[in-house]
Amino acid sequence: AQSVTQPDIHITVSEGASLELRCNYSYGATPYLFWYVQSPGQGLQLLLKYFSGDTLVQGIKGFEAEFKRSQSSFNLRKPSVHWSDAAEYFCAVASGGGADGLTFGKGTHLIIQP
Amino acid sequence: NAGVTQTPKFQVLKTGQSMTLQCAQDMNHEYMSWYRQDPGMGLRLIHYSVGAGITDQGEVPNGYNVSRSTTEDFPLRLLSAAPSQTSVYFCASSHDGTRTYEQYFGPGTRLTVT
Questions:
Q1: pLDDT tens digits for A5-18?
Q2: What is d(CA A93, CA A89) in angstroms, rounded to the nearest whole number?
Q3: Which of B40, B101, B104 sits opposite A34 (nearest CB)?
Q4: Which of A2, A12, A102, B72 could pair covalently with A27 via S-S, beta carbons 3.0-4.6 A apart?
């Protein structure tokens, strides 16, 4: 069965500093990978996705993620965070064939220090 | 487009009561799903539907019923509420089987069972 691990429950970053959120997945074939963001009291918004092709994908709000098959990772990065980036971030994986939804990681809570 | 809408936003139930969480989308999406979000657990798939008249179970289906009589609506029924069903419930939809994984989420329903 597929699974997603986000090793960091909380991360604190100073405003203007760079950010990297880690995500490791377990899946036998080529995974479909996603990063979602959830602001307090809100639903989930898709930041970016990887299906195939270029392993560095660009998303909204200045985020990017790099797919590394050898490390089974899909880490999310941003060169300079803003206070508005404070939120919960979820990595998710979908199987390549079925329609049985997404498997989510447990999330990383991002705190931005002024 | 309103996107994915959910009602109610908040609900308190007593143990043993039943209720229906409503979900509707106006994007003509074939695929719809329900997730629950619990602290430290990420999102877990309850039920999903690949089209009107077709539903299937996800990871945590016990205690929940769904039906899909129209493309637009995908209600989630709690048959006899239990405190373990206290959670935030999200409905999601996506275009079709080939793009199943790019899902759009509703704002959520926060349910408390006492």
A1: 999 999 999 999 99
A2: 14
A3: B101
A4: A2
